[in-house]
Amino acid sequence: MKKAASLASSAKATPRTRTKFVFAFGDGRADGHRELRDLLGGKGANLAEMCNLGLPVPPGFTVSTEVCTRYSEGDGEFPRGLEAEVTRALKRVEESLGKTFGDPENPLLLSVRSGARISMPGMMDTVLNLGLNDVTVEGLARRSGNPRFAWDAYRRFVQMYGDVVLGARAEGEADRCPFAEELEKLKAKRGVTEDTDLEEADLRKLVKRFKRIVKQRAKVDFPEDPLEQLWGAVGAVFRSWNNERAIAYRQIHSIPDEWGTAVTVMAMVFGNMGETSGTGVAFTRDPATGAKQFYGEYLMNAQGEDVVAGIRTPEPIERLRRSSPSAWSELQRIQELLERHYHDMQDLEFTIEDGRLFMLQCRNGKRTGFAAVRIATEMVREGLISEEEALLRIDPESLNQLLQPVFDADELARAERDGRHIGTGLPAGPGAATGRIVFSAAAAEQWATKGEDVLLVRIETSPEDIKGMQAAKGILTARGGMTSHAALVARQMGRVCVAGASALEIDYGKRTLRVAGKTYREGHWFSLDGGTGRIYAEAIATAPSEVIGALFGTDKRSEKQRRGRVFQSFKKLMRWADSVRTMNVRANADQPDQCRTAVALGAQGIGLCRTEHMFFGPGKIEPVREMILADTPEEREAALKRLLPIQRRDFEGIFKAMEGRPVTIRTLDPPLHEFLPHEPEAIKAVAADLGVSPAKIRAKIEHLTELNPMLGHRGCRLGITFPEITRMQARAVFEAACNVAKKTGKKPRPEIMIPLVSTREELRLQAEIVREVAEEVFEKKGMRLIFQLGTMIELPRAALTAAEIAKEADFFSFGTNDLTQTTFGLSRDDAGKFIPRYAELGILEKDPFATIDREGVGRLIAIASSEGRHTRPDLKLGICGEHGGDPDSIEFCQGQGLAYVSCSPFRIPIARLAAAQAALRERDAGAVRSA
Ligand code: PEP
Ligand code: MG
After folding, report:
1. Model-level pTM greater than 0.85?
2. What's the rounded Cα separation, in Å, for the pair 460 and 438?
3. pLDDT above 60: residue 380
4. Is 171 exposed, middle or buried, given 0-12, 13-18 or 19+ CB atoms closer than 10 A?
5. Which atom, in ligand 1's list, is nearest to the CA of 610?
6. Ligand 2 (ion): which residues have CB within 5 A?
7. What pLDDT does residue 17 have?
8. For residue 906, what pLDDT is reported?
9. What is the per-residue pLDDT for 266?
10. Is the per-residue pLDDT at 507 higher than 90?
11. Region for residue 172 given its phi and psi (left: phi exceeds 0; alpha: psi -120 to 50; beta: otherwise)
12. How far apart are CA 600 and CA 603, in angstroms?
């Protein structure tokens, strides 16, 4: 144990208190258990637990995550005391099996595996068959009576150890493995295609060649000393916590770097000892559909890597009943026991050595959103978990899968294989869309009218594109982030959207898109995966989800299929969520059809109706443009008069759809130039339409152009300078509300919301206008309706002076898109370019336009909430920025005591579940505090 001794004994003395580093398991008892997952990693904790349950687990020990932390901090030095603990634990394994590590006659072989607190599949390293050398391999050959098997194990070990521990594969050689090349060369020479066709003599040769590769590339001799091998492998697995793959995985899944991995060292059992041996993976339920059906695959005469690597095609697990009947019945008993024990679907790894079953791993199985919902609800019915546990168990985001059209999984895999994946952007609007690419909103509309499925491709979108976006199946932009116009409108409409795909070179003139060295013309078929942001240059078939089909009654399948399990489980889950959540969930919607969608998905009101979106549509934009181009107040009044009935009709549609639920309507917000045309042809057309010269329109555009429009003449500043606009909008709202009340008998509940307020006086002036108009309308209509008047809080000054502003407001709605923009001084339309880099560098943990920045923006919300309530205890608080549909932000809103969150219609189920989880967690935290 030369090197081991020097490695371990050279450890610096640390000032920390002495803790236990090594946790042994085997022979039906273990030092650890499942509650110690932070210390033992998921794998170590569950092996200990299985051992305690008396299940057949090969003996071994787990080196704790704390050692990983100390090893990293100590620049690759193991902490003092570790060596003695490992020696003791190893002895226990030897005694348990009657084998000795390094024994030339009856050698104990070990596996060395990583295991973090949360499973990070395939991200870190593993070494198998450790303990083999030129002497022990002969012992294994004699003992097993199977020399081919022994030499096969040895060549696998030299390759794995050379690769993982000694770094024989250079950086950048991810796709090129010198060992695999050597193996292929030998197979070719021997004229065989399968590894299993190689004979003992071939494998002996391979071992020699593999060692030569190690020597050439790693500049060291392959270590023959088993203890040196062991310490080398333990260190390598700890180091693999910081390999590129693992770091990237942690970033994507928000796993803290400090956690570290544990290392589990376990006696090897062999699935490749002949036809009575085998290995497999299985799930206690189907991880794709959630069906209660044992699911998995196995291979006889194989090691685990053969199943995973897909070298041989595994058999469906049911066949094990025939190939190894006793192992099958034992596995059945164990899988049922484990699911009952863990109260969750388990993912199992097992090996059969000469007919005897061993469990190598169990963990909560990863599953699709479909499976998550079905398993959780069925486990409640089976009495395994409570409704609350079911609610807490499901990732709200995973509900997306149940709502969005889906790509056929096989087709997608084929497209990837065929190299049709040509770029990636931000997954801004979930779902799957296929269509022909077009480069203008007008073209999208034209093609769609002809019955074509189109994808609208723009450098970035503006409100002018709205009809084209509506007409398109999906939207692809080269610029813009998660809250860019394209993204938020797409989500609201339920359109698939991939935004900010900066590699795309879009040429509007030529109507082409260039990416990865290829040019695609208008009309080329593309597919967008809004869940991953991946872009494909071909058509991939999609279908509406079962849930959407059932909710909207559009599913043409039979009643039996339509009322399938996914929909039933989804409905049940939503009912439970609604019964525990304390916040309401509203929708951001501005068209009657969006409102109906929102109600079908469970919206309890509209939290944001962006009235400017209602200005785009046939016959609507012209009077808006007239209003903008007016030179005198009289001209403007005349234009507004034409606009009034149009707005009123739209509001009537919305109020009808909402059937007495509250509807928050925001007065005009964007800078006016957004409503004017910009391209010469469009300017000419508008001029002809309005009977003015193109020069006049150009001059007006020039006049309205601002250097910083998002901080310019927009929001309530428009209503202050053109009070007649606010007056017209208020009139349209109240007249529509009275008309609908009379017609339907259901009283609408309008809530007028003034945007971008920064002072109390701004709100007071706008409120005065709205109240005056309301009185006039009620008088004229001979009826009164209850309404509320409030403001958006989207500027830091508004948040900081909330006590004053609340004097004029019945409610505050946090406009966190603008509040994030103005708090960070970060343009919401440009941030997408560098936010990902900020996340990589750890400057920002998450995109603040997607998840509320609790420290800054959140603090402003907290101040505004508490000071606003101080002035007005009954002040209603809500959120209508995109964060209203983000589970983490929803949890924050729960903590602030908000009355509702409002999000795009297709995120409503996600928000309902996230709000339920937030309420449950708050209640549980409260219970802990008061205990
Ligand atoms: C906001 O700023 O959060 C908001 C909801 O308004 P908009 O996105 O329309 O600016
Ligand atoms: Mg805003």
Report:
1. no
2. 13
3. yes
4. exposed
5. 9
6. 794, 815, 818
7. 54
8. 92
9. 97
10. yes
11. left
12. 7
